[in-house]
Specification:
5-stranded parallel β-sheet; 5 helices; 30% helix; globular; hydrolase; AB_hydrolase_fold; AB_hydrolase_1; Alpha/beta fold hydrolase
């Protein structure tokens, strides 16, 4: 079975948000579902979307980054790679797992992010991910300045995208 790519949008966004539309245009095979409700409701929806698929590449933005993280904590063997854009690891209900996640994870965050501040998110990420690559950009939470300039081809791996 090949690689399956998902984009998980943020709390107040959708598949029609800026990043969702960009991924739909640039990577038409990427699955970009809509999520609603609280974290547990969104995770149930993600579980249904993913089913028993393996070789998942999850790209999560803000609350979607939190979703990707929590999903990987429960299904690490199914996850090939995580790309977390300003992930909401500072969400009060989140705490790092007892056993760190070994899935290769790229975390990109803006140094001026007031929603998911690097000084709050990075210590949690370092306790969560064993194989973590961090990029701190000259940007804010939305990452609008750098998003399109990121090396998506390299980060996604494109094993079949």
């Amino acid at each position: 079975m090949g690689t399956t790519y998902y984009f998980l949008h943020g709390l107040e966004s959708s598949s029609k948000g800026t990043k969702g539309r960009w991924f739909a245009k640039q990577y038409p095979n990427m699955i970009i579902p809509d999520f609603e409700g609280d974290l547990s409701h969104r995770l149930l929806s993600l579980e249904k979307h993913c089913g028993d698929r393996k070789n998942l590449v999850l790209v999560g933005s803000s609350f979607g980054g939190l979703m990707a993280t929590v999903y990987a904590m429960a299904h690490e063997s199914r996850c090939l790679r995580l790309i977390l854009l300003a992930p909401a690891l500072n969400f009060p209900e989140f705490s790092p797992p007892e056993k760190m996640i070994s899935t290769p994870t790229r975390l990109i965050i803006g140094k001026d992010d007031a929603v998911t501040p690097p000084d709050k998110v990075l210590p949690l990420a370092q306790k969560t991910f064993q194989n973590l690559d961090v990029t701190i950009c000259n940007d804010d939470h939305m990452l609008h300045r750098v998003f399109c300039e990121l090396d998506w081809r390299n980060m996604l791996g494109e094993e079949g995208l």
